[in-house]
Amino acid sequence: MSASKPYEPFYDDPVYDVGDNFGAFDDDGNNIGDGILDNPGDILFHKRTRTGQKDNYSLGLGFSMTWSTPLDKNLQDLCKEAASSNIAMMQQLTANKRLDFEIARLKNCGELKLKGIQFHPRSPYYSVCADVVVNNPPRHKHPHYHTIPVPSKPELPDSESAVDLGGPLEIQSQPFSP
To answer: What's this model's pTM, rounded to 2 decimal places?
Structure first.
């Protein structure tokens, strides 16, 4: 809804006196203008001037709806696929970072437990390593040494006979040529 107010169809426009008839003289001694207004600011009369205003009233009720259909559905599908791929990549990166964190926690907590180092059970940080289990911890806590016996070489019997060495020995004669 709109309206134009105040409505004034006419207004009185003042017309000022711009006469310059006195102040200088010509060669014959007659009064002429000198470039300065004789009665500045004096209003000679008022001229009635039309404003052109109209009473404008309007009341607009309406409803607007837009229906948009993409002309190239392939680009829209590519955009959705790219967004899905990007989301999946970010989720995988987050999962990788979480796995790296958990493996580092497992390794550090396990090494500390092997050394007998842990938080006090009443510590707020006790739960950090509470779920880490060390399987097959070493039985000996201090360095120690074991001797390993070296087996001796078995003695082989001396023999001058080939039969004693394990098999029959055949000698073939070859013809002699002079």
So the answer is: 0.37
